[in-house]
Amino acid sequence: MEIVVKGFTKHFGDTAVIENMNLTVKDGEMLALLGPSGCGKSTTLFAICGIHKMDAGQVLFGDRDVTHVPAQQRNVGMVFQSYALYPHMTVFQNIAFPLTVRRESKVDIKRKVMEIADLVYIGELLERRPAQLSGGQQQRVSLARALIRRPGVLMLDEPLANLDARLRLEMRSELRRIQQETGIAAILVTHDQVEAMSICDRIAIMDQGKILQIATPAEMYQRPVNSFVAGFLGDPPISFLDGVVRQGILVLQGDADDTIPLPEHISGQPDGKVLRLGVRPEHYQPHFPTKVKGAVVFVEMQGREILFDVKLSNGDLLRSVQAASSQFKLGDTVEWGVDPAQILVFDDHGTRL
Asked: Which of 277, 282, 278 is nearest to 320 (CA)?
């Protein structure tokens, strides 16, 4: 079922949280709402599922206008960060609760609970209570309870935030598997860019109540519309170098001796134009041609890779991710290169050129 949001506006008192937002989630797609805290992600989710009333705009589930339909009648499956399980009930009873409210037969309830429990791999836990479960198991129960009602759409509000790193990794793949097997259109709210990029078909990056860009993870990483999007995506994060154009070369801010030739695709920039270059860690390597000299001021072993911070003479930092076999060490003076074809260039307003 396709989800369409048209002209969504939401105010809390005199504060405009969302203004005239338009958003489409395709049938069977998982889309992430990604952005910093307070950008309007959860507000958008809660308006779509009916928890928040829209001040203006329209929400369509397929051909059905649900703008003024109560939340309980929108057939939305919700999974929250807090799990929200009933502690006095068994896992079976928690999962069955939406069907019990509907007064379905005991035979149908048992059959459906067993089916959904198998889907999320908790069939052996049905007689336990929430206090006897790990965080990952509780989140699977929460997901099963949301899915057992056969929702038309699935809403996930920071569902993995309370899990440790290993469980987050495990549950990311499980969420994606279950969403694809059920074919439900889903919206995932998260501030974790790795989570969004790893399991979602598309990402909508938000800031201050606005969607800045909607694209596939690969497209957004490679072709961000502005410096905010470029800086939000990527781990380790992108490095930015500010400077002024002089005869086709960018003279870095703070030191006339630090220069970088401009990439061919933005050649012809006038002298005096202020630009910002974005260089991702994988594109600053010893073998690339556009050399930039600096000193290694930070080294972090990350298992298969090593992260280096290289400080330039003007104080700017470039990051580099290299294989664990790299022999460079803290304090070394290096002259590594930037891949000119991969440099991202932004104007003084942050828009990518």
From this structure: 282
